[in-house]
Amino acid sequence: STQNFVLFSQQMIRSTTKPFRIATASVASRFSTAPAPKSNTKYFKIYRWDPEQQGQKPYISTYPVNLDECGPMVLDALLKIKSEQDPSLTFRRSCREGICGSCAMNINGTNTLACLCFIDKNDEPAKINPLPHMYVVKDLVTDLSNFYDQYKSIKPWLQTRTEGSHDLEHGEFLQTKEDRKKLDGMYECILCACCSTSCPSYWWNADKYLGPAVLMQAYRWIEDSR
Questions:
Q1: CA angle 151, 155, 157 (to 5 degrees)
Q2: Which residues lie below 8 Å from residue 91, measured CB to CB, with a gap of 6+?
Q3: What is the DSSP letter of 69?
Q4: What CA–CA distance (Å, rounded) separates 93 from 139?
Q5: 3-state SS class at 45
């Protein structure tokens, strides 16, 4: 009858449309346009050169670092690269606290300490080079011999006006708080060479010009009232 035909048709429609809706939902989830989680990988472009490799010229190596598994400082990234990717990468480091000055290098165009330099969280690769206009020993290690010879030349220690005039048995040289305060901003220098290797005059005349770091150290001892 006509009534039975209508009921049968409705049942057929319900039975065929349910799987279709399920299939449609499945396909939609498979081809979802929701953005994938953003990778927290930072790339580091590092200056490399090994004088023991005959004929090798300086070049740049690029290393990916997962910042979710790395400390916040550039030195943390360098240590991670050396430990996990390339043990031949060479650089100086010691205290990790901005005290020794060992990890001085050029990071993104600025001379600074790797242990105090935060990793930029932008998408640009970090560019790491040795201190500019210095002879390179290997990779990020520069030859600071001339810099330390210049520091030695100023005799950076307390000297009496008359040699041998100070008698240790009669106590130390005393200094007022006002005179001590005059040394603020000078005694903190850790001789990292960042300022000197940022100075164009020092670049071109390092054999004659002492540079800002050594000149400041010389004034530090001249200004000392003791």
A1: 110
A2: 78, 82, 103, 105, 114, 139, 140, 141
A3: G
A4: 13
A5: strand
Q: Is 136 helix (H, G, I), strand (E, B) or coil?
A: strand
pLDDT at 25: 44
Q: What are phi and psi of 9, to 5 degrees?
A: -65, -40
Q: Give the Cα separation of 61 and 109 in Å (integer).
A: 17
141 vs 40, higher pLDDT: 141
Please tell me the predicted confidence (pLDDT) of residue 95: 94
Give the whole-angstrom CA distance, residue 94 versus residue 187. 20
SS3 of 153, please?
Answer: helix
Nearest to 92 by CA among 80, 108, 107, 75: 75
Pairing of strands 59-66, 41-48: antiparallel
By DSSP bridging, strand 141-142 and strand 126-129 are unpaired
pLDDT per residue over 137-163, tens digit each? 999 999 999 999 999 999 999 887 777
Q: What is the DSSP letter of 66?
A: E
Give burial (CB, 10 Å; 0-12/13-18/19+) of 74: buried
pLDDT of residue 10: 52
> What is the arrangement of strands in the sheet containing 104-107, beginning at the earlier edge strand?
59-66, 41-48, 126-129, 104-107, 110-113
